[in-house]
Specification:
Blueprint (H helix, E strand, L loop, with lengths): L2 H8 L10 H12 L7 E6 L13 H6 L2 H13 L4 E4 L3 E2 L2 E2 L16 H12 L2 E5 L9 H6 L1 H18 L5 E5 L12 H17 L6 E2 L11 H9 L4 E5 L12 H15 L3 E7 L1 E3 L7 E3 L2 H12 L6 E4 L17 H17 L2
Parallel strand pairs: 1-2, 1-12, 2-5, 5-6, 7-8, 8-9, 9-12
Antiparallel strand pairs: 3-4, 10-11
Helix pairs in contact: 4-5, 7-8, 9-10
């Protein structure tokens, strides 16, 4: 039990006779019930989704957002405890998502959405990891990581982004979005890609904290080879995808894989271990639009499962999958407002 919970309960002592022993026990149980479960303290965010067949329910709304609406969306996420936001991409389909000299800009309702969200994050104290990629064909990850022309474009964009936006105090670090996976180890090309990105990121923004989010944790191993790979990766944070939403991992089994990863990270003594927890399910079973999962039946169990093994739980993702009810900045289905209500109800009970 934390201190505020103790004070709150102690304040009731003068009226203790109003409660039976059973009622007091239930109150104590209620305050302690979630004490071991970490809340969601960050989320991925995007201006447009990289796979349009998954985002029919929110892309159109996001495309129309003004600078003010993006500002209010950032504050909305801060309200539910988001301390970190991870920008998924700075380019899509051959177009830049910010004013760039490197490619035509995608037409959106906000002329510079990256400036809008970073400015809002400055105001409310959110830390941003800024993407450096999706300048090529994102369906071919190996090419994205190793092609020399894409690498040149990616590096030029990092220079441009640092020049335009790194003055923001919310510019916390970089996110390298080409998804690595465990099979059961990282590929050599992935390690080179991450280390090359980090070298440039540190030269442009020396104090940056940088992040990747690999997937397929069901293959995780804690052996000398994987520990040596972790030691060789020059990355500050690895937020592994739990895989429940994409059906890589069965509900209730992610914890054992994160336990294996925790053991490997402890041996490597290198990168911090976070989680990238999936809030969605597929509309058509294994494909189609991403829809909000039920909080009590699924998401809470995911949080409980992985909490003992990670420093923080980030989610994929608030945008499109969770929305505050009754606003003009809803991007997603009505179930997204139900998820917001259910999560915030739990969060109020959980807060210290």
């Amino acid at each position: 039990m934390n201190r505020r919970q103790f004070i709150s309960i102690a304040g009731l002592s003068s009226a203790a006779m109003l409660f039976s022993k059973d009622a007091q026990a239930r109150l104590l149980e209620g305050t302690a019930k979630y004490s071991h479960i970490k809340p969601i303290t960050g989320s991925w965010i995007e201006f447009q989704h990289h796979l349009p067949n998954e985002s029919e329910y929110w892309d159109k709304a996001l495309a129309s957002f003004s600078a003010d609406q993006w500002r209010r969306k950032i504050f909305e996420m801060k309200e539910v405890g988001m301390e970190y936001l991870v920008l998924m991409s700075v380019a899509l389909f051959g177009k830049a998502l910010y004013p760039s000299k490197l490619a035509p800009q995608m037409k959106l309702g906000c002329d510079d959405p990256l400036e809008a969200v970073l400015g809002a994050a400055d105001e409310c104290g959110i830390k941003f990891f800024i993407s450096n990629d999706y300048w090529g064909n994102l369906h071919d990850v190996e090419v994205m990581m190793s092609d020399s022309e894409i690498r040149e474009l990616r590096e030029k964009s990092m220079v441009e982004i640092a020049e335009k936006y790194s003055h923001h105090k919310s510019f916390y670090g970089w996110y390298f979005p080409n998804e690595a996976y465990l099979d059961p180890y990282f590929s050599d090309s992935m390690i080179r890609y991450v280390n090359d990105c980090t070298d440039l990121a540190k030269s442009l923004t020396p104090n940056s904290v940088n992040l990747i989010a690999p997937y397929y944790i069901v293959k995780a191993k804690c052996d000398d080879f994987f520990v040596d790979q972790l030691k060789s990766l020059n990355i500050d944070i690895i937020a592994y995808q739990d895989g429940v939403g994409v059906n890589h991992t069965k509900l209730g089994e992610a914890g054992k894989h994160f336990k294996t990863l925790q053991q490997a990270h402890q041996k490597a003594q290198k990168s911090r271990l976070w989680a990238d927890m999936e809030l969605f399910y597929f509309e058509q079973g294994t494909k189609g639009n991403l829809l909000p999962a039920d909080f009590n039946d699924r998401i809470l169990k995911q949080m409980e499962d992985i909490s003992p093994y990670v420093e923080r739980i980030l989610c994929y993702q608030y945008i499109g999958v969770m929305n505050k009810p009754g606003t003009d900045i809803i991007a997603g289905t009505k179930e997204s407002t139900r998820l917001y209500r259910d999560y915030t109800k739990w969060l109020r009970k959980h807060k210290k």
